[in-house]
Amino acid sequence: MPASLFIALHLLLLLPSIEMKRQGKGRGPKAIRQKLTLDRVRGAGRQSRSGPFRLVALPECSESTESGDFFVDCQDRNLISIPTSQTWSKKPRHFLLARNQIKVVRDGAFVGYESLTSLDLQQNHISLVEEEAFQGLTHLTTLLLQHNRLGTLSEEALIPMPNLRYLRLYDNPWNCSCQMESLIHTLQVPSNRNLGNHARCAKPVKLKGTKLKQVDPELLCKESDPTTDLETDPINPVEPSPLRSKPDAISSCHTYLFPQVQMDCSKQGLTEVPAGIPEDVVYIDLSHNSIRHLKARDFQSARSLRTLNLSNNNMERMDTASLSGLLHLRELDLSDNSLRFVQYGVLEDLYFLSQLKLSGNPWVCNYSIHYMVYWLRLHPGVKHSGLVCHSPPEHTGERVEKYVSSYNRECPKDRQHSKTDQDQTDPELWNTAMEVQGELEEDLEPSNLRAPQQYEIIRLS
């Protein structure tokens, strides 16, 4: 017992020295080196005022070459500042920074990016652009700043870009006050017709909704009557316009210019196709809206369109000329709508269509569905999916092509009591409305798919 007590006391005396060694761990040269290494790794996420340190492991931005131009794509990377130019294998001509978390663009943010011709900063949280932020960008022709939180922007910020031809500023809460006078003057110069189009004042209330190009800059810096507050002007209250205008594509959609012109109009609450679709757009996403009726000439300006996504719109009807003019369309997505059939002639302009998505629609298998099948037979290069009967119950789940084939083999129920043979031989019905109707129904089916007609030879002698 005394021996065990002695051992226990000895252990108690050793504990403080062990604890002291633990606390002192890291004081030697080796431990100091380990600490420096750890600090360097921890510092990899820190970013400087003008951008991240060179040793920072950046999010995986992609580098690519399109038509001889070098692109850097840093979209959707959660960046909070501009990466330095030394990060990339060579100097980019197009820099895509859309959909990040950038709040401020600091002076000198683009030092080393002198070769840039386009810069996409849309859909960030930018509320401040410092006056020398774009210093050195003498070759820049396109700057996209739409869909941010900018209230003011100095004309000084644009001076380093003498070749700027396209400037997008819409969907920002512009405060049309004296601070904006010089910028608005610049935007209204006739030669700057593509700078700041569609951008509108958010305040004061008196100017809310007015385009920057229509604001009188001479009035912005005039001292206002202290008895009249522009925010609550009792003399000129802002009243909603009684006229309902068609939504504008530029302000309703996100537009991406590089490497090809694309528009993302999805989830915008649209009830119709917006007006003013650019002629050179090649891709439009109108999915997840409420466009129930596709009207004639909705896409008349989109002559270069290659891909059109109209899925998830609860669409019920497509007018005959709704897709007219889309001669270069390659992909069309009509899935997950409320289409029961497609009217005759809707698809006639789609000469180069290669992919057609039709699933998730309540296709009704009756005579109205035949046009779709006939058109697909005439265009065997079109890969289609989802063309399945939803009703009537006896055909639910059946492929529409199979239904049409069986329809042509059997006597259709809707014509069993039509007395067709009598109509064709009764002279009293010739040249009547009934005969004309029959001819129109025959014309609905392409001539080369009609069954050969049988003729009876009658000897007159």
UniProtKB/TrEMBL annotation:
Disordered, as annotated region: 224-245
One Gene Ontology cellular component annotation held by this UniProt entry: plasma membrane
Signal sequence, start to end: 1-20
Keywords of this entry: Leucine-rich repeat, Repeat, Signal
Record-annotated LRRCT domain positions: 172-222, 361-412
Protein name: LRRCT domain-containing protein
Organism of origin: Channa striata
